[in-house]
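Researcher: Go.
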Amino acid sequence: MNKKETVLWVLCGLMLTTAGCTSYYRVSDPGGTKEYYTSDIDKSRSGSISFKDAKSGSTVTLQASDVKEISEDDFKAAVKPEKK
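Model: Structure:
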């Protein structure tokens, strides 16, 4: 195996390793009146955050927030549709 092939295989391995590493978050406003769930948060220079709420599908921007990392099981339980 030459050097290019070795580098290619190492890069492929790294991509596969990091592909399964998703973080899940519960985000609430400072008053704690509303909770949101997401797996991706964008932080701005001004300190606000933007994300897509997994429950509603809406894009949310908060100037102040409380962000907590949660488990995948907690995330799935929180965003599953309610049965009628």
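Model: Residues 23-84 form one domain.
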